[in-house]
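Q: Please design a sequence for this.
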């Protein structure tokens, strides 16, 4: 499937190549008591560009993506949420270490917020980094309708850059009229790679180009908010350094093979020195799917004189977050085997709408991403270090996400993982095994699932119970 471009939508007409300004999202409204007001509801927005029809979406505060929520490490986030959607929802704060009752999983950590209902979220911000928020009810539908937003926690002492940019990557399956295509949860998607779209947006719009200035140093926060699409971004002509993964600082390094790979749910923070000359342009190409590479956007240099002659000489390593270090010697071990999907071993109870996937042979058909029918797959004591190998016995990619506890990736296919990065979502290739370790520091029931939302909703989820 080729990504839908304006060219394919507007056949025969010239492509407008104006430099799209990546304006910073307006700050969220702060009301009484310092709470940020946030609502979810229907809206119409222009995704594809001028001269194209608006798309009926569901949005936080009427915007795609939702308002960028920005706090500082050590602050307390208070979000007064109002649901004006025609159905229940919740908000999950993806990657943030929040108390269990604030985790946004209906039936597991809170009741669903009914249409017309409200819920106050409040949690301390232990970690700095790039996080995001999205619903955890009927996720495959609600996220595909646009309910996504960035949650940025600034370091107390940030690294020095000239600009801090955010690209929240969205993936939409649109009709020729730029309306959302139906067929949510179709078995053809659920048994394969999920609902992959045909239109990729950066901060809610197709962007022909992104303006940059020669010599500047940019921190680029990337968030993959797609239902199912995996990205592998190649910043042609540039040498990005990865400084954080899933919000957690990592030893700065060049992305392997020069490509920044992001599975659904994952983030990467990059430092990019704009090494081109005034007036030049460089493509940013997404080449994850063989033979379907396309230009995501273009870094378009202004004619201004370079900001400086040689790259900024300032450290780019971020200070670590205060995460509890896994005690590998005292760890308990529980592996999780992923099975199912097209050409795989379908669960015994598979019907025409699923389940199609299983974790350790258990195919959870949660009611629309709700966890309340799920017996825990894993039970562990609070404070315990757990080591888990995710063993992917399927022929498909799976970004496995654990709520509550960032984990270190120890190894892949038996080989020590470079950087032992902290993550909250680990992307497994077909037949790949990844071993992770974490400290179960908060009691409660926590979700563990594939972030391809059509996989999650057809069996690929489970509950991790941490007992006090
Ligand atoms: Cu971002 Cu349970 O998910
Ligand atoms: Cu999956």
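A: Design:
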């Amino acid at each position: 499937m080729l990504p839908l471009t304006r060219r394919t939508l507007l056949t025969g007409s010239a492509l407008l190549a104006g430099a799209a300004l990546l304006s910073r999202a307006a700050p969220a409204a702060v009301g009484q008591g310092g709470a940020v007001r946030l609502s979810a509801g229907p809206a119409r927005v222009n995704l594809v560009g001028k001269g194209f029809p608006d798309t009926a979406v569901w949005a936080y505060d009427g915007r795609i993506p939702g308002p960028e929520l920005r706090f500082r490490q050590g602050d307390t986030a208070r979000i007064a949420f109002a649901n004006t959607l025609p159905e229940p929802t919740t908000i999950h704060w993806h990657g943030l270490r929040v108390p269990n009752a604030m985790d946004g999983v209906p039936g597991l950590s809170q009741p669903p917020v009914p249409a017309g209902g409200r819920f106050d979220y409040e949690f301390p911000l232990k970690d700095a980094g790039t996080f995001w928020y999205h619903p955890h009810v009927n996720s495959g539908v609600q996220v595909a309708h646009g309910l996504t937003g960035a949650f940025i926690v600034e370091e107390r002492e940030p690294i020095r850059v000239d600009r801090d940019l955010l690209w929240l990557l969205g993936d939409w399956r649109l009709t020729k009229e730029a309306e959302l295509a139906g067929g949510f949860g179709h078995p053809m998607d659920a048994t394969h790679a999920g609902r992959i779209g045909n239109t990729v947006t950066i901060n809610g719009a197709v962007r022909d180009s992104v303006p940059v200035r020669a010599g500047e140093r940019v921190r680029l926060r990337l968030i993959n908010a797609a239902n199912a699409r995996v990205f592998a971004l190649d910043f042609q002509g540039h040498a990005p350094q990865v400084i954080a993964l899933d919000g957690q600082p990592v030893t700065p390094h060049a992305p392997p093979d020069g490509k920044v790979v992001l599975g659904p749910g994952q983030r990467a923070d990059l430092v990019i020195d704009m090494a081109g000359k005034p007036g030049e342009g460089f493509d940013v190409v997404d080449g994850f799917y063989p033979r379907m590479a396309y230009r995501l956007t273009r870094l378009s240099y202004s004619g201004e004189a370079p900001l400086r002659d040689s790259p900024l000489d300032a450290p780019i390593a971020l200070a670590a977050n205060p995460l509890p270090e896994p005690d590998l010697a005292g760890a308990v071990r529980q592996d999780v085997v992923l099975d199912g999907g097209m050409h795989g071993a379908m669960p015994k109870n598979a019907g025409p709408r699923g389940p199609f996937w299983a974790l350790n042979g258990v195919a959870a058909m949660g009611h629309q991403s709700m966890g309340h029918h799920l017996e825990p797959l894993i039970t562990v004591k609070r404070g315990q270090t757990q080591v888990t190998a995710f063993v992917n016995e399927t022929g498909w990619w799976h970004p496995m996400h654990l709520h509550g506890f960032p984990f270190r990736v120890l190894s892949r296919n038996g080989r020590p993982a470079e950087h032992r990065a902290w993550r909250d979502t680990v992307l497994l290739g077909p037949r790949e095994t990844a071993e992770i370790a974490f400290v179960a520091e908060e009691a409660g029931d926590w979700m563990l699932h594939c972030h391809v939302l059509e996989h999650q909703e057809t069996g690929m989820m489970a509950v991790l119970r941490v007992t006090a």
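Q: Thanks. Anything notable?
A: The pocket of copper (II) ion (ligand 2) is lined by residues 398, 450, 452, 455, 460 (CB under 6 Å). The first helix runs from residue 6 to 9.
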